[in-house]
Amino acid sequence: MKFTGALKKMATMHKSPVRYAMSLGEDLLTVNQLINKEISIQFKHKHICACGKEVDQVYRANFCRDCFFNNPAAGDAIFRPELSKAHLGIADRDLEFEKAYQLQPHVVYLAISSGVKVGVTRQGQKLHRWMDQGASSAIVLAETSNRFEAGQIEVALKDHISDKTNWRRMLKNEIADKDLLKEKTAMSAKLPEDLKPFLSADDEIFTFTYPVENYPAKVASINLSKTDFFTGNLAGIKGQYLIFDQGQVFNVRSHEGFVVDFDVR
Ligand SMILES: [Zn+2]
Fold first, then answer.
1. 227 alpha carbon to ligand 1 midpoint, in Å?
2. How much distance in Å is there from the Cα of 66 to the middle of ligand 1?
């Protein structure tokens, strides 16, 4: 069965294990059902930007040139929450867009995908964010009314804790044995007094399992900008990665907008 279209981040459902769906053109693939099947991916040397334009070349987060420089969805505050200015009524690119995006409840969380990391996301997105990262567990550290406040908290903790996921270790399932409640207590103590009122009383630990039978001992990433064709047997899915049986891994999210033929046998 061949499917053609622009890749998009896989949709996630918090089940045990996590359920994944991928839309390609008119089709919606239940990715969990493709495990143990042979998959070929052929890059068609075309990109479709989030704005719908077809382009040959893309910039950060796979935006076209125009969106990269002008679209509010590619603005600085998206990538660096502490640069948010909508709470001051100051526009970066489009104040209405930025108000809608930034002036909503956010959380600062601690998650374990390999080591413990800190991150920021919109309250309503948190489960999806954690599944996209391939987190094994996560806890809410602080709850804020906007993106700027959450960014301030993240910045205050950056000297004490990583804000990055080690994707190789995450894919090899090398998970730090850490108690998130203890980590939360330790990080809470590091916060400056003016940010402590945002600390969350919600101590629920969310856990995630992924549809992977055997984790690879070594991983090698597939980059369609370098190798335009790939074929392999799907061994599992974790985060936004397809894991193949020889340890090759394909980050679907980092290939958003790449137009491909996706062949399942
Ligand atoms: Zn665009």
1. 24
2. 6
Q: How far is the CA of 202 from the centre of ligand 1 (A)?
A: 39
Dihedral of CA 89/76/200/187: which sign?
Answer: negative
Length of the chain: 265
Core vs surface per residue 37-46: b (16+ CB within 10 A) or e: eebebbbeee
Residue 53 alpha carbon to ligand 1 centre in Å = 6
Residues that place a CB less than 5 A from ion ligand 1: 49, 51, 53, 64, 67
Helix (H) or strand (E) holding 127: helix 126-133
* CA separation for the pair 213, 262 (Å, rounded): 22
The closest alpha carbon to 244, from 30, 12, 39, belongs to 39
pLDDT of residue 17 exceeding 90: yes
State pTM to two decimals.
0.94
Map tokens 């998130």 to a residue: 180
Q: How far is CA 259 from CA 20, 58, 176, in A?
A: 20, 12, 37
Ligand 1 centre to CA of 204 (Å) is: 39
Instruction: Express each pLDDT in 97-152 by its tens digit.
Output: 999 999 999 999 999 999 999 999 999 999 999 999 999 999 999 999 999 999 99
Domains of the chain, by residue range, sit at 2-64+212-264, 75-207
